[in-house]
Known about the structure:
- There is one protein chain.
- The chain has 324 residues and is α/β, with parallel strands linked by helices.
- It has a domain at 22-160 and 253-322: Rossmann fold, CATH 3.40.50.1820.
- The protein is 33% helix and 18% strand.
- The protein contains ten helices and eight strands.
- An eight-stranded mixed β-sheet has the order 1-2-4-3-5-6-7-8, sandwiched between helices.
- α3 (135-146) links the parallel β5 and β6 (152-156).
- The longest helix is centred in the middle third of the chain and has 21 residues, at 175-195.
Amino acid sequence: MENKELTLTEEWDKTFPKSNKVNHKKITFHNRYGITLVADLYEPKNTEGKLPAITICGPFGAVKEQSSGLYAQTMAEYGFLTIAFDPSFTGESGGLPHYVASPDINTEDFSAAVDFLSVQDNVDPERIGILGICGWGGMAINAAAIDTRIKATVASTMYDMTRVNAKGYFDAMDADARYEQRKALNAQRTEDYKNGSYQLGGGVVDPLPEDAPFYVKDYYDYYKTERGYHKRSLNSNGGWNTTSALSFMNMPILSYSDEIRSAVLIIHGEKAHSRYFSEDAFKNLKGDNKELLIIPGAVHTDLYDHMDVIPFDKLERFFHENLK
């Protein structure tokens, strides 16, 4: 298979400053559906031999120029070769139509990144880990359940996107509400087909209502301000295609997480609205190589980019101990 030719941005357009401790370049790879993915590769300077590697993605609705790139660059400073990728159908990656999410294809994206890393001359294929942020934390755990090449997995400020789409926040949606949601989404499918285009669900609300719940304010503070805004980010702009929610409602991604034998670290903020996703996911994991770390006082997006909150020293120890 050959990578589809894409036009890649050459300038540094990240939401974080460039490090002088690592080398950076754009790369492409493909998944088993033939979709070409675009990633930023970060390599620690002055290294020799085969390195442990980590592939990183998320948050859900973000791009590699945001949180995942910050994680990737920082972990490269700790001595890992890392890539932060745009998932299928988003950012600079391929796949048409754009702005679509899929529990299957987006889990596959992690394994496709492992494919790429496994054949690099400067990567040890027996020392590859993954890290998922927000909705891609759930995808990462799902990938760890299917891909035995993954030796260590981190889920940071995790969402289970299949659970929240099927059941709503805090599982408030019952079967009748799900049925009405399905009716509305399938009616939108018909309209999309008639119109020859896909309705966007809208990104983070802007302007911010005075009575917005805290988690909405939390997202606004990241995606709609200079702190985290990016022109290619779905959450910063028009959002996902509305009908993307359909497949997530019907395909729970954590069904086999209790069969993961490799190491898993789940990190979440004490005061995050989403904390229950991580706590419940952790309860389902088996083995003495699983760990849940709750960060005191932290809210959901603190783990996107707050360098004084994200436990990078802990991430370094976890990956070094389990990628050896």
